[in-house]
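Why show two proteins at once? Because comparison is the fastest way to build intuition. When a single record is shown, students tend to memorize it. When two are placed side by side, the eye starts asking what differs. So, the first record is below.
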Amino acid sequence: MPHVVADPCIKCKYTDCVSVCPVDCFHEGENMLVINPEECIDCGACIPECPAEAIFLDEDLPAKWSHFIALNEELSQGWPILTEQRDPLPGADDVRAQPDKLAQLSRAPGAGD
């Protein structure tokens, strides 16, 4: 079962998770990270590293965010891989608990490595 990045990551983009990923399965968008389900080995190392608590095993993903399974798969195909930790987005600490951020998701790719 792959891991999934959900709504709390939007507009935060903490990258603590990428620094512990042994297989480089994180892909970077302009204001969110996603996990490629084909690359994820389900080690779970990323879950405790996420300050926004945005990463879930797909079977543990809250039902309200079930659409993020397909979204991670889709966006990971076009976004570049990110393997190095960077600073979060400006204001991340202020918006990380904000609910329902999907409308604020940018589909633009990030810079990647």
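Second record. Ask yourself what differs from the first in the token line.
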Amino acid sequence: MTKEKIQDAIYTRRYVYNFHYHLIWATKYRHQTFSTKELADEMKDILRMVAKDNEIVIEKMEVMPDHVHVLVSIPPRISVASFMDI
């Protein structure tokens, strides 16, 4: 007997999950820190590297001059609070 797989769920040896978190970081005092394309691209590269190292899936990401939006899927073994400390 085979069970149907859940669409968009992530399957591992231990669990099946489909967690999505919309996280927003704002710069201190809303300073325009990411004002150039180069700085925004560097921030995206850093976030991708951290996500890859921690087996986190970035579904969408947008870097604005004074804040960053990220939609991520985090494995259940990592709490959102500990992800924010990474």
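One difference worth noting in the second protein: The chain has a mean pLDDT of 90.
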